[in-house]
Amino acid sequence: MEADEFPLAKTTVTIFKHDTVYSADSVEWCPHKPNTSFFVCGNYQLTEEKGAEDLEPSEKRLGRILLFSVDFFRGLELHQTIETAAILDQKWCPNQIDSVSILGVVNAKRSLEIYKLLNRNLELVTKFLVTDDNSETLILSLDWSSGKFNTQQPQIICSDSNGNIHLLQLANSELILQKTLHAHDFQAWICGFNYWDTNVFFSGGDDSVFLKFDHRCGDLPVAKNRLHEAGVTSLHSNKSREFIVASGSYDEYVRLWDVRTFKVPLSKLKMPGPLWRLKWDPFCQKFLLAACMLGGVHIIQANVLDTMMISDSCYEHKNIAYGADWSFLQPKDTDKFPHKGNVVFGSCSFYDHLLCVSAAVCDFNSDFHKDTCTTNK
């Protein structure tokens, strides 16, 4: 598919917009009832600090966590703003811990922070300094081990700007470092678990290498793939299809992999821009939400034959769409909005500091895994 053949938006409608003031690079929607109307937006603002007269101005990375909710009656509400270091990634723990929704956040000050959502506010639970060497290390991504199987003591994997991968465990409100390994020659943009077997995890880096590790086999990768033609920026394990992982790259392709072979992709799809985030939908895991930086935000349908096509597009963002995530709102909630759509998603972009909440239509009954859907319309 050539660039000029990419479809324009079909059914996507932007319901709400918000100026985040600081540059926005992350949107993550809470997956747990009764908090499915809540989501966070992360900010990354590079500012210039004036030093002494004989020194060059230095740069400082500032961030904010913005906690929102959205519903038909109150619209888009900003409940809380937390000042922090610049944020690179955020993820909610897929299951509640002690009946509380937990958020992991990684930032530009070498830290992984854990928050809990209580009474419409986030409270810091604990934090872990991944390295204390005073370096300019940025923690770039994180993932939770409980994407398929619930646990009260989940593992968290993080990647950093030095190419390292860090494996930690959250136990009794404390973060425990289990191991650190060097994976990539440049920035390790992304990391993630195989949700079906959390001994296995993956990483992608600016060296264009996609790696597979097995915790039981030591610290060296058990498989290495060099088919991406630029940096590997995103990956997500499919919790409904045991061996399927999606990856995205600066080379503008989304690829589907069978991790048992890991040699050639099952399918690949040219997108309108470089990939930054890929998310399987939370209902059936047969649609991908893709943030394509300067190429918009798109919904991709991946069918039973592992072929892919863009089914819907949103071009609200003009200045680097970094963040995108599906809401967990059910049809009884999305039906109330005055726009056609059975799914709602959030997205954000950097230099225009724009947050959008949009509605779209996904046909969850069109092909495989009908029995796995938790929503149906």
How are the SSEs ordered, and which strands pair?
Layout: E1 13-19, E2 24-29, E3 38-43, E4 45-49, E5 58-71, E6 75-85, E7 87-92, E8 101-107, E9 111-118, E10 121-129, E11 139-144, E12 155-160, E13 164-171, E14 174-182, E15 190-193, E16 200-204, E17 210-214, E18 223-225, E19 232-237, E20 244-249, E21 253-258, E22 267-270, E23 277-280, E24 287-291, E25 297-302, E26 308-314, E27 321-326, H1 331-334, E28 343-349, E29 354-360
Outline:
The protein is mainly beta. It has 1 helix and 29 strands.
User: Number of DSSP helices?
Assistant: 1
Biggest sheet details: 5 strands, antiparallel
Helical content band: under 10%
- The coarse overall form would be globular
Radius of gyration, rounded? 19 Å
* Separation of the first and last Cα atoms: 30 Å
SSE succession:
EEEEEEEEEEEEEEEEEEEEEEEEEEEHEE
Stretches where pLDDT is under 50 for at least 5 consecutive residues are: none
Round the mean pLDDT to the nearest integer and report it: 91
Structural class: mainly beta
Can you characterise this structure?
- With 377 residues, the chain is mainly beta.
- Helix content is 1%, strand content 50%.
- Strands 2, 3, 4, 5 and 6 form a five-stranded antiparallel sheet that branches. It has a four-stranded antiparallel sheet with strand order 1-29-28-27, with no helix packed on it.
- The two termini are 30 Å apart.
